[in-house]
Amino acid sequence: MGLFDKLKKGLQKTHENIFNKIDKLVNAKSEIDTDFLDNLEEILLSSDVGVNTSEKIIKNLKVRVKEEKYERTDQLKAIIRDELKNVFISGNGESSDPFKIDKKPYVIVVVGVNGVGKTTSIGKLAYNYKNAGYSVLIGAADTFRAAANEQLETWAKRSGTEMIQLSQGSDPSAVVYNTIQTGIAKGFDVVIIDTAGRLHTKTNLMDELSKIKRVIQKQLPEAPHEVLLVIDATTGQNGMVQAREFSISIQLTGLVLTKLDGTAKGGIVLKISNEMKIPVKYIGVGEQIDDLQVFDKESFVKALLED
Ligand SMILES: Nc1nc2c(ncn2[C@@H]2O[C@H](COP(=O)(O)OP(=O)(O)O)[C@@H](O)[C@H]2O)c(=O)[nH]1
Ligand SMILES: [Mg+2]
Known about the structure:
Oligomer: single chain
Strand content: 5-15%
Number of strands: 8
CATH topology of the largest domain: Rossmann fold
Bound molecules: guanosine-5'-diphosphate, magnesium ion
Helix content: 40-55%
Strand order of the largest sheet: 3-2-4-1-5-6-7-8
Structural class: alpha/beta
Distance between the termini: 18 Å
CATH architecture of the largest domain: 3-Layer(aba) Sandwich
Number of helices: 12
Largest sheet: 8 strands, mixed
CATH class of the largest domain: Alpha Beta
Shape: elongated
CATH superfamily of the largest domain: P-loop containing nucleotide triphosphate hydrolases
């Protein structure tokens, strides 16, 4: 299956939710009046686009249809597609070669609450960097969950990459230190750090992340090069709260939205990108190793709104 077909399949539920309704609306109404805009807003809200982002889309749409004369419904649909695309902030899907590094080791830290798909996404990321010709080392700094090492090891094997681990309950910073040290000493191209989503100690999760960052910078002052926050798209609005909280203690460079295949509310991607001002870098559309896609607003909106 091609990349776009995979995306379409992964977004099927949201497609049905958004596309079918918009299509019906556009076909039933030949002009854009208040009624039309209210209905459109309702459709957007029902797929978790959120009040602010929906309002922005509607507002821009009003301006567009006033200025541009459209004669056919397909022209109107194109304008709607355009305005959905326009809420994505710049930095989304602009790199033509996303799995290309310019520093070595290129350090990526992956954060997020429990169960959102951090470890799975790391496995998929490692696979992609490996396919791009790079050597990858994964650091298992989620030392709190009993099965975490084993799960990560499975992914490391699947992706043909290596991994540094310590026994369960070890200090996550010690894992990070060892991983960076090995990454440098053995000349790995990419180092990816997995982290815990919840701590079973009194240590605050956010303090722990700041500490991890300091430990990395002791050996590589310019790292981490990327800090990715993973958000489960099926939990909707909660993702916004998480994004805000994590941003306070560690500077996020991008978002990974997972499990889009499991929700009809994939509009959350628009909301989060627009309201958090952090680019969505990857989306997860399934549980297999090749189910992580580089986010591209063109194909995303196309997959949502094309028949
Ligand atoms: N359907 C689907 N499931 C996913 C996706 N990403 C992760 N998962 C599942 O979510 C569950 C939790 O993932 P895990 O990586 O362990 O989350 P972590 O606690 O953040 O490390 C697992 O069952 C994964 O298979 C995705 O894009 N689609
Ligand atoms: Mg995990």
